[in-house]
Amino acid sequence: MKRSYDIWVLGGDLRQVKLAQLLQQEGHRVQVLGMELRPEPDQLTDRDSWKGIETADCVILPLPAEKADGMLNAPLSQRRITLAQIVERMKPGQLLCGGKLSEPLREQAQKRDIRVEDYLLREEFAVKNAVPTAEGAIQIAMEELGCTLCGTKALVIGYGRIGKVLAHRLQGMGVEVTVSARRNSDLAWIEAFGCRSIRTKDIGSTVGQYPLIFNTVPVRLLDRAALASLKPESLVIDLAGGSGGTDLKAAAELGIKVIWARGLPGKVAPVTAGHILHETITHILQEVEV
User: Fold this and answer.
1) Given strand 212-215, what is the order of strands in its sheet?
2) Can you give the pTM of this predicted structure?
3) Could you tell me if 212 and 154 are in contact, meaning their C-beta atoms sit under 8 angstroms apart?
4) CA-CA distances (angstroms) from residue 139 to 24, 127, 268?
5) How many whole angstroms from its chain centre is CA 110?
6) What is the pLDDT of residues 106-143, one digit of tens each?
7) Dihedral over Cα of 129, 263, 220, 121: its sign
8) CA–CA dist 48, 24 (Å, integer)
9) Which tens digit of pLDDT belongs to each residue from 181-217?
10) Nearest C-alpha neighbor of 196 from the set 159, 244, 225, 226
């Protein structure tokens, strides 16, 4: 970037910490709020309140930006910070970036003529985050199964960003990979890359033959009937957003182990995730004049 910005980074986990550090190293004037419990000392300027936030060029919120009660998502802080109060303090023309921004928060910002960017909706962010998500899912599988994955039969449900990266990684480890998809074009690509393919609508009748299942589709495909066909030692790793794609209650009653692995980039690779977030924020600042 050619110019230096006044940037506030609020809340979040180690991804946000790494983001703030990278922005400061680039020469931006960075201040942080809601991460005073970060594990390692650094040169970041900690704020004890949001007073002065109206002078920032850009305010960056975490992913997800807020908790269910409207408070800032700040696991590295003991403070309770209300996002509505922060937005109320900001001035027209400022840039507010965040991940998975709620509609009420977005509307409040837009009413005040604050420019809003949800980086979760950006394609480069989603594609790059598919890598730590896939690798984190594989890590979980190896830890839970207690054996090598080479030679294991695995089903990847869905051929979106995460499904593509995950299938490729698993195949490279010698896993017998089957991938489900809806579109004929995706089924053709799956086979072209050397994996077996099935239609997603047919997984209910075939899922029982796989000891390892990764779900990436945020639709309840693994219902009670599908789960009942699994062997007791089967492992389901659900990577889908929203409410997931697995009937967790039915799985518990049937004795099927399901791990709903959400937010893996920030958990298994926070440094990489921080770099991905930094790159995305850099793109936004290049595109939006603040």
Assistant:
1) 196-199, 176-181, 153-157, 212-215, 235-238, 257-260
2) 0.89
3) yes
4) 32, 19, 9
5) 25
6) 999 999 999 999 999 999 999 999 999 999 999 999 99
7) negative
8) 19
9) 999 999 999 999 999 999 999 998 899 999 999 999 9
10) 159
